[in-house]
Target: 7-cyano-7-deazaguanine synthase
Amino acid sequence: MKKRAILLLSGGIDSAVALYLLKSRNYDVVAISINYPGRGERERESARILAKLTNTRLIEVDIPFMKEIVELWNNKEERPEHLRDAHPSTIPARNAIIYAVAAYYAEILGINIIVAGHNADDTKYFPDTSRMFRKIISRALTIGTHIGKTKGLRVIAPLSKLNKTEVVKLGLKLGVPFEYTWSCHNNYDKPCGQCSGCLARKRAFDELGVKDPLEEAINSGRDWWLLKKKSLLKP
Ligand SMILES: [Zn+2]
Model:
């Protein structure tokens, strides 16, 4: 029987590489994309395209209350003390919520592996991307679900030992179409080039000495998003 996994797919680089990694290992993948209000339409659409390209079923889940701390408070000083030094794109208890949503579908679909795309850089800023958190939540879900009691339910992050550059390197090897991924935290048509998402992406491609296919597509007028918008504007 084919191995099955639920993948949390955002449309960013890490989860796209995780998707292609699972496919290369012959996994039957069901992808879950979490729609929260601050998430840009281009990123949502990226997840849809990546799923389509890999023949992967995509389940979109709306979580309307979920916000990043930059949206919850106007500035650092307003934040409660324990969140003052938190990364601006922190979402309170993000992965506790998202893993629980994935466990809901794991139980329904009879799948006992949940895959998250976290990389080694994430653990510096987000406590809910740590190995220990995954280990303990896997234990809790194994005890607390029927699929867990039958087969064990594990949350794994196969890219967690790789930094962003190594993730991109692996993605290039796996043939990930990076022009369909989106890393910018802003909801523009083109990457802003300034936010932490854009900078981390740029650094990774620069370190490998490889041109970012998204940047190339934009520069040559072949960017799928802009082409799609143009065709929608046609009478
Ligand atoms: Zn950006």
Q: What stands out?
A: The beta strands are 4-8, 28-35, 57-62, 113-115, 154-156. The radius of gyration is 18 Å.
